[in-house]
Amino acid sequence: xxxxxxxxxxxxxxxxxxxxxxxAFSSDPAARWAFVEPHVYFEIFPRFVRAFGGKxxxxxxxxxxxxxxxxxxxxxxxxxxxxxxxxxxxxxxxESDREAMSGVFEQMAAFRPAxxxxxxxxxxxxxxxxxxxxxxxxxxxxxxICDRQKLAAYLEATSARNVPLYQRHGFAALGTIQVGTxxxxxxxxxxxx
Length: 193
Prior knowledge:
alpha+beta; Aminopeptidase; 7-stranded mixed β-sheet
């Protein structure tokens, strides 16, 4: 099977990339812990994707494969839109869970490397297309950029099922993030090669 064609997402492909990630995360433990009700998930999570990883579109670091897989990489020195994320959480997450969610994000920030690095907040494949190597192709593409620039890559694995994939691509677990009833999240770092 030929290698998937990884391309930078164009402005016309933003909605398609966001929709792909929303589908990919529809059974993700952390995403569904935060947005439990299906109607809330499908209403709020697309906006959350844009706030969390949308700056990748602004910086040419949103990559996609044929409309069925996407990865949003945040360049060194750029941060997700925290203000928009907080507003979405306050509007959609049960008040009883907001403190735990805030604690999760505080722990995520504590694990982020201090040195310049690429951050992968979101990567996903349409569930109907999973198992075809698209996630690996997206990772290889971006990690080659990290290596050329001699920069580390950082992510949080929100599903234990994905940890082995990231390990195959050189990421190492840094610990575990968990607050209250949140599912465990694994912060992971890959040094440049």
